[in-house]
Amino acid sequence: MRLLLGFLLFLLCLTASSATLQAQTENTTIAILFEDPQSELLAPKLIKALSQAGFTTQEQSLTKTINQNLKFPNRMNLSTREASNLGQALGVDVFLILRSKIVERADVGASLYGEGYLAIAFVNSRSGKLILFDFIETQQSNTTLASETIAKQLIEQLPSYTQQVLSIVNKQFTPLSLDPQDAEAMEIPAEGSALAEAFDLPEFTARKQPIYTENARKMAVSAIVALEVVLRKDGKVGNIEVVHWAGFGLDESAIMAAKELRFEPALLEDKAVSCRALIRYNFNFRNQK
Predict the structure, then answer these.
(1) Closest CA to 218 of 107, 128, 99
(2) Shortest CA distance to 147 belongs to which of 92, 193, 101, 204?
(3) pTM
(4) What's the distance, CA 214 to chain centroid?
(5) Rounded to the nearest 5 degrees, what angle is found at the Cα of 98, between the Cα atoms of 74 and 106?
(6) Quick one: pLDDT at residue 8?
(7) What is the pLDDT at residue 187?
């Protein structure tokens, strides 16, 4: 009897959790931005799947009009401010960016085969932050099958994406808990200001170059990643926040490089202080061998 009651309680909790997720999804609006004609072929299946998941999907003609009026050269590589401006213009909670690449290749025996790649980026309109990035790839006997396979994998992964996106969106108003040293970090004074006269910038003694990722290479990506990094007064790297994202694992690569920074801390009136610094990393496909 106790076992039966426990099982019924489990089913009740599971049902309540699913109902809550569905309710949250129904209140979440989303716009889809296609970066190339090939990815746009996914529109009918993707819009249907998002609607079935409970999202309110913006009319595609409206999304296109707004997107064309905002001339961002690379929507897969935006600052959080640019992304927030785009999201506010679209008037949705989240926007999804898709970029695909389908190529025909030949193996050693000169037999042809198809490779398919699909980059997927979910962005929070309010914060402009990249909240989920995924990269799907496949190799099939021909390009048509490769294209069909990445479309199928995208739809199969959508329930997982939905849960992750909603989890992050629902936590966006939760205050970020910072280490006291990070919370007290000062902004670098504006050049020419009174405070700047008493301020000495941190001096870097060692900087490592971030690794250009394999996924970025497959899509021939050139991008900028910018981080707001707390350089603590004890000479250690503190909190790191991505303020210009790129996906393809490049954000993570930049963060790893930033954690390896070596520096002499900033000084204010000859006393070591923690400060926030903007660190930029350039990833150039043409420079890769």
Answers:
(1) 99
(2) 101
(3) 0.87
(4) 17
(5) 95
(6) 45
(7) 94
- 10-residue mean pLDDT profile of the chain (289 residues): values are 48 45 65 94 92 90 88 90 95 96 86 95 96 96 95 94 88 78 92 91 94 96 97 96 97 97 96 96 88
What is the structure's pLDDT at 192? Answer: 87
| pLDDT of the residue at 15 | 45
| 78-82 contacts at long range (C-beta below 8 A, 24 or more positions apart) | 78/123, 78/128, 78/244, 78/245, 79/128, 79/226, 79/243, 79/244, 80/127, 80/128, 80/129, 80/242, 80/243, 80/244, 80/245, 81/128, 82/128
The answer to whether the CB of 29 falls within 8 A of the CB of 94 is yes
Residue with tokens 């590589």: 77
Structural domains of the chain, with CATH: 7-169 (3.40.50.10610), 180-287 (3.30.2420.10)
Pairing outcome for strands 186-187 and 275-283: parallel
Strands (E), the chain: 29-34, 56-57, 94-106, 112-124, 130-140, 186-187, 199-200, 203-206, 223-231, 237-244, 262-264, 266-268, 271-273, 275-283
